[in-house]
Amino acid sequence: MLAPVETRSVSPVFVGRRDELDLLNDALTRAAAGEPQAFLIGGEAGVGKTRLVEEYTAVAARRGAVVALGGCVEIGADGLPFAPFSTALRALRRALPDELTAAAAGQETELARLLPEMGETRPGRHDEEGMARLFELTARLLERVTADRTVVLALEDLHWADASTRHLLSYLLRTLRTGRLVVLATYRADDIHRRHPLRPLLAELDRLRTLRRLELGRLTREETGRQIAGILAQEPDPAQVDDIFERSDGNAFFVEELAVAAHEGCCTGLTDSLRDLLLVRVEALPETAQLVTRIVAEGGSTVEYRLLEAVARLGEDELITALRAAVDANLLLATPDGDGYRFRHSLVREAVGDDLLPGERSRLNRRYAEALEAHPALVPAEERVMRLASYWYHAHEPAKALPAVLAASVEARSRSAYSEQLRLLERAMELWDTAPEDIRSRLRPVDYTEAYPPPMPERRGGTPSGCDPATTPLRYLDLMAEAAVAGRFCGERERAFKITKRALRLLADENDPLRSAWFWVQRSRLVRSLGRGSGREELARAQDLVRGLPPSEVHAQVLTRAANWSMIHSPGPEAYDDAERAVAYARMVGARETELDARQILGSLMVGAGDIEAGLAEMHEVKERALAEDITSVALSVYINLPSELEAVGRSRDAVTLLEEGVAFAGRHGLNDTKAWVCGNLAESLFSLGRWEESEAASAAVADRAGQGVAAQGIHATRRAELSLARGDFAEAQRQLAAAQGFFGAQERAAQHHLPLTRIALALAVAEGRPADARAHLVRALEPGFPPGSQCYAWPLLITAAEAGPDLLDALRKAARSVATPAPVWQAHASWLRAELLRAEGRAVPDDWSEVVTAFERLQRPYDLARTRHRLAEALLATGDQDRDRATELLRLAHAVAGHLGARPLTDAVTALAQRARIPLTPRTSNDPADALGLTSRERDVLRLVCAGRTNRQIAAALFISPKTASVHVSNILAKLGVSGRGEAAALAHRLGVFPPEPGERALA
């Protein structure tokens, strides 16, 4: 007689998936070597994704890795914000408490939005950088934790993930570059219909070279047989294997269910529907146990025991008996922490949930909500508000649901989960009309977002009232304002745009100019970010609405946004006036952040108008005040705008110092978009200083980093195009030019963007022999004229255009008369343009170019100095041989600098001119290479000491001269060599072999 057959719902044998497991194990080896690995594991429900993850994490743990597992939590149809990351970080904290604490040091208040155990979240201003800041800090946390320890981060059930979780995962997969980390994420492929929110993320991640996707197929017939054998603990009958394989089609979970059902004799008369198969074992339970499974199915992915007890309303013994029956039937499992229950497989939970009657579903959600409302401690504190809102909403109780949903939206905002905040606010708007009036009248705004106006006593005058916001009911428009800002913060600009349109339609019937103006400002920002216009028309509407009203925060914000728009697009007296009034109004109403923002805009406008020192001083003062008062948004703006103005007046070295400080500041705050802007300006200033390799590195440092807006990406494409053009890589310059034009779009006509792009396009046309295209580019640029303050873009464009053809020279002269020269660098450019125009007419003489070279020798522009030296040498040689020695000196200097920079077109031009004039670019008669540089005897002595690392004071002592005289000699040497610093001068002298090393000589530190 045969012994009883032992059956198991989960096969003890891991069947199939060997190739996948080998691939994952190889990834673990690579990760242990410091190369992060990432996988997306997809497959239909029940195919074995979780089992694969379990097997792999067990292997990883045996190999010494720390496993941090997190699953997306479903409550009804809702996901908890950041739930899988919170769970995984909690597991990581248990396993590596000291390491996680050290890695999070200094950022606990921000990271507490993901893991509340780290401390209290600091209430503060919410902005568009808030979510990016949290994401960057999370990436940095993981990089630090995994610097010395291999970690497997496994996130399950992405098909249930909330939007914030999806965004954070995308960010991590795009940005993690270092660390011993393996990231796994699973999703149910058969759930990803065309409109599923995960679908765009999957398409986006498919383009990442650093991520691999594993699609798990069904089991073969042979694998199915081995799985059944493991479940039954004996070899199955081949006919039974054929039958189960045919019916399950190789789906591992259905194989298990069919094998157990066949063994237990439940197959007789069994319907062909596999969904019904899942309910067979539920229906075999006692009635009380069936009730409990239905309650658990509606409670969420996991239900705590005490909450289940409160909802079931059964005696404790009766409940435990029912739970025991469900666990013994392998339908429910105890959670790992032993505090609650979940279904063994989500397919069973969904089948049970789908079997509920509509009234039954509502009643269960109401019971959950009532139990949680009566006893909030029944669930973890970080889940309480969100779960209560979901239960009341699915209970179809608007009177209870509306306040709960609003409370959940505040919780989502506090965690920087702006996508969930938007979803909850949209749900609140859906509930608004169905909620009783007495409930709505008791609701109060938590605060007023982004200068949104508080209650006013009279709509006509708009005078701030004595109305107490604490006693003024929440309005539907208040919800729309919060939702519009949340949409902008989380990147759902299309949804935010539609909300502002609806709000403005509602306000058309009200006399509420301040709220209307506020929504027009929001619409202006959204129109511009969506590429549907410049935003000027919307700001004009807002200005019309506040004109004549008393000062208010909204009024100050409208004026600030208008001044900022004008500063970028059309600076002038109107912009200056708007900025001055914005400062005054913000001071009157105590809007400190708006005041400082308006002041830095005013400073920038002052610089552009020629009041350089006063404008720069104002911007420096704003920076110091913003840092001292911890107003991060303004500090970041100044770190972008102040160096830009310094660069605009030729103070590139000062700009670099400030920009390097700004890069560190943006990095500390986890602000990738701002950091990208700062690095873009840094790349520009380094290019001006002739530090081209550093310029390239500054741009590469933020390449492909997530969290960058299209404008920041356009800035870097412009910088790369400029560098490629100067190096003579015209194909790459053309690619980067096209990329930049795509990023900025047809609507973006700010001078700071389109003038540099036009200059690059024009230069490429000239270099490639396309004069007609060059002229067309110039005509389009000249047609609207150059706005005030655009001289730093206009002069280089006009100089480049001088080679476009003789028929445009008069137009260039006319255009030049409208461009200001408020700083020595632009006075030098004006002289350069005059000389270029005379050269194009065949009328240039050496004196014209001598003036230009002399001007550039005083500036920190080695590339421009080399170019103008080449032009002066050309003019000298055209007059005959009387100035041949000077021309030789100029060509050798220009050739040395061009070679040092890697400026191939300039090198070729200098070489060609020297060959035509039969001038050797390296001296033949002198044994002293310093002769080629045109240095005096004293300058050679000074340069030798500079190369040895001496300071001005040490040089003075060695040569018996004053430190001031030594400083003058050093400045002259830098100008003659066309370099911007002592280190570059030493490098160039070493490259040319000016001073062979003497025995025993060493450089001083």
Can you walk through the features of this model?
- By secondary structure, the chain is mainly alpha-helical.
- It is 63% helix and 4% strand.
- The protein has 48 helices and 10 strands.
- The chain has a 5-stranded parallel β-sheet with strand order 2-5-6-1-7, sandwiched between helices.
- β5 (151-156), α7 (163-175) and β6 (181-188) form a beta-alpha-beta unit.
- The protein is globular, with a radius of gyration of 35 Å.
- The N and C termini lie far apart (93 Å).
- The model is unreliable at 1-8, 267-272, 457-466 and 999-1005 (pLDDT under 50).
Quick overview:
The protein is mainly alpha-helical and 1005 residues long.
Count of helical segments? 48
- pLDDT < 50 stretches: 1-8, 267-272, 457-466, 999-1005
Rg, Å, rounded: 35 Å
- The best one-word shape is globular
- The end-to-end distance, rounded to whole angstroms, is 93 Å
Strand content bin: under 5%
Number of strands: 10
Q: The biggest beta sheet, please?
A: 5 strands, parallel
Category from helices, strands and their pairing = mainly alpha
For the largest beta sheet, what order do the strands appear in spatially?
A: 2-5-6-1-7
What is the typical, i.e. mean, pLDDT? Answer: 85
Bin the helical content.
Answer: 55-70%
